């Protein structure tokens, strides 16, 4: 069978993403509403978990469908497609290669004892005290904790350092000097 351009084609399709370990159908498919040849449908009561044909016209072999993985953790998956190649009932089953489930938290990318939490296809690190950054690789030291300013001075963090705001009659970098004449 050929399409109008001379390349091979097919009349119908049943396309699913299945788990390798238990053959369960997972995820959902998206087909453009303007596509007159294909549609996403429900199989087993799930939402749009299969792609199938809308008509028996010959379809080209190059088509694009978008699959969205479920939000819950799943095992490795495989693409399973069954094609109708003629008007008679003639199905050809094609199974794609295994697609491994990639867990961005395995191994743990968080440094300094950080805890990795999977966030969709990515991850977020929960950093322990004194560490910060996307992978807990930065030391988060607050130079104002504990307050280095003496005599009731107020500490303000400035870049990687601090400045003391001294109360009246005190001066110096940490408010340790009395009177304006004692400023060094």
Compute the CA-based radius of gyration: 32 Å
End-to-end span in angstroms?
A: 94 Å
Quaternary structure of the protein? single chain
Q: Describe the sheet with the most strands.
A: 5 strands, antiparallel
Q: What is the mean pLDDT?
A: 79
Please trace the helix and strand order, writing H or E for each element. Answer: EEEEEEEEEEEEEEEEE
User: Could you give the order of strands across the largest sheet?
Assistant: 4-5-2-8-9
Determine the structural class based on helices, strands and strand pairing: mainly beta
Instruction: Give the overall silhouette.
Output: rod-shaped
Care to count the β-strands? 17
Query: Strand portion, in percent?
Result: 35-45%
H/I helix tally: 0
Approximately how much helix is present in the residues? under 10%
Summarize the structure in words.
The protein has 184 residues and is an all-beta fold. The protein has a domain at 9-99. It is 0% helix and 39% strand. It has no helices and 17 strands. The protein has strands at 9-10, 12-19, 28-30, 38-41, 50-53, 59-60, 66-68, 77-84, 91-99, 115-119, 122-126, 131-132, 138-139, 154-158, 161-165, 170-171, 177-178. A five-stranded antiparallel beta sheet has the order 4-5-2-8-9, with no helix packed on it. Strand 8 and strand 9 (91-99) form a beta hairpin. The model is unreliable at 1-7 (pLDDT under 50).
């Amino acid at each position: 069978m050929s399409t109008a351009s001379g390349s091979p084609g097919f009349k119908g399709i049943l396309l699913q993403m299945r788990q390798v370990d238990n053959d369960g159908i997972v995820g959902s498919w998206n087909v453009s509403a303007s596509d007159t040849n294909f549609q996403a449908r429900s199989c087993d009561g799930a939402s749009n978990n299969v792609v199938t044909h809308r008509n028996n016209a010959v379809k080209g072999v190059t088509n694009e469908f978008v699959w969205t993985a479920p939000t819950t953790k799943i095992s490795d998956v495989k693409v399973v497609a069954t094609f109708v190649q003629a008007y008679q009932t003639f199905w050809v089953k094609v199974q794609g290669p295994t697609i491994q489930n990639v867990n961005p938290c395995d191994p743990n990318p968080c440094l300094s004892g950080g805890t990795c939490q999977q966030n969709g296809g990515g991850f977020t690190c929960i950093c322990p005290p004194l560490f910060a950054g996307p992978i807990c690789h930065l030391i988060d030291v607050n130079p104002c904790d504990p307050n280095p300013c003496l005599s009731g001075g107020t500490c303000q963090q400035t870049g990687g350092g601090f400045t003391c705001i001294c109360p009246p009659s005190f001066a110096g970098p940490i408010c340790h000097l009395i009177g304006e004449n004692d400023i060094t």
